[in-house]
Design goal:
Elements (H helix, E strand, L loop, with lengths): L1 H26 L2 H47 L5 H5 L1
Helix pairs in contact: 1-2
Length: 87
């Protein structure tokens, strides 16, 4: 269920917004064209927000791994991969 929600927010929602925006640009009058341009921009913003969230989640994992390495250093006095480099 969560995977379906992610697919909807990451792919289907921005694509649907962009399609509606393009249809308004092609078919509509002046006001509809303006709304279509705004909707295409909104679709781009949704994609950008999704990418930024994914990067934030990924960097959180990097910080956790780095913190674990620091705890290892505090316990053992060397970095976890230091001895494997000496061999």
């Amino acid at each position: 269920m969560a995977r379906t929600g992610l697919t909807f927010v990451r792919i289907i929602l921005p694509a649907a917004i962009a399609v509606v925006g393009i249809v308004l640009i092609v078919v509509g009058g002046d006001a509809a064209r303006g709304a279509g341009i705004v909707l295409v921009g909104v679709a781009g913003l949704v994609v950008l927000a999704n990418l930024l969230m994914r990067l934030a989640i990924q960097s959180e994992g990097d910080r956790e791994r780095d913190e674990e390495r620091r705890r290892y250093f505090d316990r053992h006095g060397h970095w976890p991969d230091e001895r494997s480099r000496r061999r």
